[in-house]
Amino acid sequence: MLVFTKDIVMPMAFAALFSVVLLPVESRVERKVGRVFSILTVLLVAFLFIALMTWFILSQLTSLVASLPDIEEHFTSFINDVSRSASQQFKISTEEQTQLIKNGLNNLSEYLGDLLLSTSYLLYFLIQVPIYIFRKIQEFFAGDPARLYP
Description:
Layout: H1 2-32, H2 35-66, H3 68-90, H4 94-142
């Protein structure tokens, strides 16, 4: 059931997130100009910001893809040098090195998955809680500015 509602729920969740994030900015702009103009201005600036960030990320990815053959060549020579040194100094064959790396990568992927999950929950909490607190404080003092100075 959740798979079918994903196409509806995800855009609505992002829209709710953007509205919560952009509401304080829109409120400030609304004080200086009208409501419609402030909404249009904030949305235009937000979309321009998203477009610029997308362009920047895509340009960085394009340059990364262009330099991948050089990176692969350097990485391969580095790995061969390290493997040769390990064979000479520690008397570990390349097959044993390959098996040790495979075991380490399996363990690393499990640990990184857990770390990413716990970190994402922490980041979500650290971002959402101040936004909601700010909104509640703003709603509390919105009607009567005298509440600020008892």
